[in-house]
Amino acid sequence: MTQPHDETAASPAPTPRELREQAEQTRQELGQTVEALTDKADVKARAQDKAAEVKEQAAVRAGELKAKGAEAASRVKDKLPDPVKDKATQAAGQVREKAAQAGQLIQDRAPEPVRAQVAQGAQLARDHRTLLLAAAGAGVVLWLLRRKKG
User: Fold this and answer.
1) Confidence (pLDDT) at 133
2) How many CA atoms lie within 13 A of 125 on its CB side?
3) Could you give the CA distance from residue 72 to residue 95 in angstroms, rounded to a whole number?
4) Who wins on pLDDT, 113 or 71?
5) Is 145's pLDDT higher than 70?
6) Could you tell me how far CA 101 lies from the centroid of its own chain?
7) What is the rounded CA–CA span in Å between residue 18 and residue 4?
8) At what angle do helices 129-149 and 112-127 cross, to 10 degrees?
9) Exposure class string for 26-50: b at 16+ Cβ within 10 A, else e
10) If you write DSSP's letter for every residue of 32-54 in order, what string do you get?
11) What is the pLDDT of residues 24-50, one digit of tens each?
12) Mean of pLDDT values over 75-98
C-alpha cells in the first residue's frame, strides 16, 4: 500500500548540514521569543520604565508651570505702582530679617530632626524665590485695595 517513490516530484532530503542550520535558526528564534515573553512578564521592570516616563513628563510639566509662574510674576510686577513696589520691597526685607532671627532661634533651641526640616523648607523657599515674591506682591496689592475700599 505504499506508493512508489517518485524522485522527480519530491524534494531531496535535507543534508545533515542543512538540518543543523535549521536547528540553529530555530534555537535563535526560540531564544528571541523567550526573551520577548520574559520582558513582557517582568512587571517590575515595566513599572520602573513607566515610572521613569511619568517622572520625565512631570519634570517637563513642572518646567512649563515654572515658566508660566515667572511670566505671571513679571506681569504683576510690571503693573504694580512704584509705592506698592517699595512697600513690597520693604516688607520682603522685614520678612528676611524676621526669618533670619527665627532661624537663629530655631537653630539654637530645636532638636536635629526639626532643624533638618527647616533647612529643607528654607532651600525650597530659595529655589522658588521669584514665585514667593510675586505672591507677596500680589498679597500687598490685595491688602492695599481692600484697605482703600474699607
Assistant:
1) 81
2) 13
3) 22
4) 71
5) yes
6) 35
7) 26
8) 80
9) eeeeeeeeeeeeeeeeeeeeeeeee
10) HHHHHHHHHH-HHHHHHHHHHHH
11) 999 999 989 888 888 777 777 777 878
12) 82
